[in-house]
């Protein structure tokens, strides 16, 4: 499974997951995605077969549902919350990396589904 981290998540998460052998990029480190609207980020992730990791459940759930209504599959959504993984606390990066690494190693299929990430 390949991931695209929404830009509210630290680039350090993508870097750490790559060190663990996972194919992960951050929207913040891809110039064509930096500060782009959610529909463009969603489309880019789908064109690369990447599940999106985001705190923005409302917008991305709506985009995923719209794709399914059009008969288009998507690579999945992994939803986090700032309450469980505070992005303003640098200690949380390690917990989020561990949770995502565990999910990636589980090989749970995410196509057209959403997974709520828990610590």
Keywords:
119 residues, 5-stranded parallel sheet, 4 helices, globular
Describe this structure in words.
The protein is an alpha/beta fold. The chain has one domain (2-116). Helices cover 39% and strands 15% of the residues. The protein has helices at 11-19, 38-47, 57-69, 92-106, and strands spanning 2-5, 24-26, 50-54, 77-79, 114-116. The chain starts with a strand and ends with a strand.
Name the structural class.
alpha/beta
Global shape: globular
Taking pLDDT < 50 over at least 5 consecutive residues as the criterion, the unreliable ranges are none
Average the pLDDT over all residues and give the rounded result: 92
Question: Quick one: how many beta strands?
Answer: 5
What gyration radius follows from the Cα positions, in whole Å?
Answer: 13 Å
């Amino acid at each position: 499974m390949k991931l695209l981290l929404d830009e509210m998540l630290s680039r350090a998460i993508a870097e750490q997951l790559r060190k663990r052998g996972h194919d992960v990029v951050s929207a913040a480190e891809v110039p064509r995605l930096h500060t782009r609207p959610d529909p463009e980020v969603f489309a880019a992730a789908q064109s690369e077969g990447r599940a999106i990791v985001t705190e923005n459940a409302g917008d991305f759930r709506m985009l995923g549902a719209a794709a399914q209504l059009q008969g288009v599959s998507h690579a999945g959504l992994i939803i986090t919350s700032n309450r469980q993984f505070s992005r303003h606390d640098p200690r949380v990066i390690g917990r989020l990396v561990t949770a995502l690494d565990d999910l990636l190693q589980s090989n749970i299929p995410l196509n057209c589904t959403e997974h709520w990430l828990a610590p």
